Amino acid sequence: MAADLAGGGGGGAAAADPDGPDGVRMTWNAWPRSKVEASKCVIPVAACIAPIRASPSLLVLPYAPLRCKPPCAAVLNPFARVDFAARIWICPICFSRNHFPPHYAAISETNVPGELYPQCTTVEYAPPPHDAAAAAAAAAAAVPAPIFLFVLDTCLIEEELGFVKSAMRRALGLLPDHALVGLVTFGTQVHLHELGFSDLSKIYVFRGTKEISKEQILDQLGLFSAGIRPGAAGPPGYPKAGLQANGLHPSGSVNRFLLPASDCEYTLNALLDELQTDQWPVEAGNRSRRCTGVALSVAAGLLGACMPGTGARIIALVGGPCTEGPGMIVSKDLSEPVRSHKDLDKDAAPHFHKAVKFYDNLAKQLVNQGHVLDLFASALDQVGVAEMKVAVERTGGLVVLAESFGHPVFKDSFKRIFEDGEQSLGLSFNGTLEINCSKDIKIQGAIGPCTSLEKKGALCADTVIGQGNTTSWRMCGLDRSTCLTVFFDISPSERSSQPGIPNPQLYIQFLTNYQNPEGQMRLRVTTITRKWVDGSANTEELVEGFDQETAAVVLARYISLKMEMEEEFDATRWLDRSLIRLCSRFGDYRKDDPASFTLHPNFSIFPQFMFNLRRSQFVQVFNNSPDETAYFRMLLNRESITNSVVMIQPSLLSYSFNSPPAPALLDVASISADHILLLDAYFSVVIFHGMTIAQWRNMGYQNQPEHQAFAQLLQAPQDDAQIIIRDRFPVPRLVICDQHGSQARFLLAKLNPSATYNSAHEVAPGSDVIFTDDVSLQVFCEHLQRLAVQS
């Protein structure tokens, strides 16, 4: 069985685009009918959706959607039954009959609107404003400009501050001219720069030691909270009397602090030239006094004065831990180390819970305002990503962790946010996701960069996973690659189990409202159907519809959540027990005969995924700081299935003279003296030279004209690594190493230890051994077979 497993690394017959036109992947594509059957399936019924994934075939419709009558309110879709003669459509989700409105009068079998084309299960609506007056007003009030509020840490050494300044200058050059820019710098105190006051530099200073409320911040700045300015009437979201076209207040206005990039580029560059490291003295044996929490409060408070519906990002560049004020994670005394996983387990991290509570409240404020927090943390020690995780994840922010502001991981990732064209991330604002589904399905919750809007209803399940108790979620920031995992509960009502012919299909509709990078509001509607299966009678249809990649990723996200929420949760045991149950339910075997055990191809690489998940940084937190663990989990929760699979089980390519580059087994046996290996572990990309290759390279053979082939062999993995790095955010760390070198650990840590120091006598010359007592995949699978067939 392990041999079968080892061969199936490529996912077999996956099409060019595994997510399909809808960007939805499910753990099970055939659903069991009852709760009992679903629990026997072991793997939860879940869907991973990329709500605004770029798709070349996407149909954009220039009118408003047609909705079913409340409380259903589903949008007309290709699965609706249409009676052309009577001008009626029947909603597939609630079976209500709806009349077509007058402007659909021309509808017929040969003339159907775009949303009914059978291949258009995903469409996007770009509705114009309702009437001519509104259209004119909309044209006059230019699209609300996106806001970028930079929050810079100045408790840095000169060299690091220099890197920050050059990154900022490059960013300012890439920003669209109409984008609004603001600047906050912080060290021991917080400095908010009034960019609109160009005669000399004017700064508002906030003390870093105590928490300040949004109202106090606005009061000190002479601003009003959005929407409660005296005499401001009218519906929310529309320009009020006396407002400027860009939705900002005039005199007592945010415009003093947030200026269009084209107007303030000179002022900002001058400010950056003068910016010094924090001048507050640091006593010997102490850390710098850094008030990250207050700085982020000030930034969020300032944005609170913007019009509702303005897309804004707080981009925080942090170079060390917060040591005073709210959000503090460690004291100033260097003798107190920053908390580790062990401290968190033993409840010996005195500041942790208080800091998490502070960022939780900040997250609520930002979600309420609809604004995003992005975090770029660059330091050798931890900066508090574990505490800030809640604010970044709830608002859909981006996060990058590097060891210096001069490191390519930071520099290239930071640049990517502002690029447009091919390299653009497609950063969008103000998203909400609503889900509608057939009546026997309930929604347990969602894991990923979103916040529950607490919109309870008949579709909410009793058990909650992640952001639950709701059928709609807020996503303040989302981009083309953002992915959410939604967990479903199957609970057939009494009515549906009555005799008669039950509906063989189930339907789920995802509605995503969002403001695209150009500032227009769009509605993306994806409707999918899957079939119900009576699982007790035939497991074959369930097996046919199993997606092992999605299942592995969903389990990884689920146990990461459980490890954070439950104190004594043993992830490895939980995974082992689930895998044994799954194999004994869906494997083919004779009782008590391990040799007879086989798995259907749809399950065949699942045990290998579980083997690598058990050893991954998501489960084994030993040797990672809480910041790194939080960072890995945030990316696992927001990336596509394809990317998340690489995080769990890296891919390995082998380059040699006598064959083209080929996928290699993720096994220590793949190491050989005359091969180059390219490992893609998502967060890092490793180019590993075998011993002989490294010796030839050190002798400079690649520079001699007769060894052209060797030069090409050395260059090929470099080119492939650049292709991987170019398309990925955050930019992965590139590690170039040689066999037996110190950096070779980046590769060895990921390989299956089929040869360890105990079996060193059997190893082929030129290969390697791994010094570990971990079991190998072979042993793991033998144990699995033995336990799965037990009667």
From TrEMBL:
Classify the main location: membrane
Every Sec23/Sec24 helical domain range: 547-645
What does the UniProt entry say about where the protein is found? Answer: Cytoplasmic vesicle, COPII-coated vesicle membrane; Endoplasmic reticulum membrane
Q: How does it sit in the membrane?
A: Peripheral membrane protein
Question: Where in this chain does the record put each Sec23/Sec24 beta-sandwich domain?
Answer: 429-533
Q: What cellular component terms from Gene Ontology apply here?
A: COPII vesicle coat; endoplasmic reticulum exit site; endoplasmic reticulum membrane
Q: What is the protein's given name?
A: Protein transport protein SEC23
Recorded source organism is Phoenix dactylifera (Date palm)
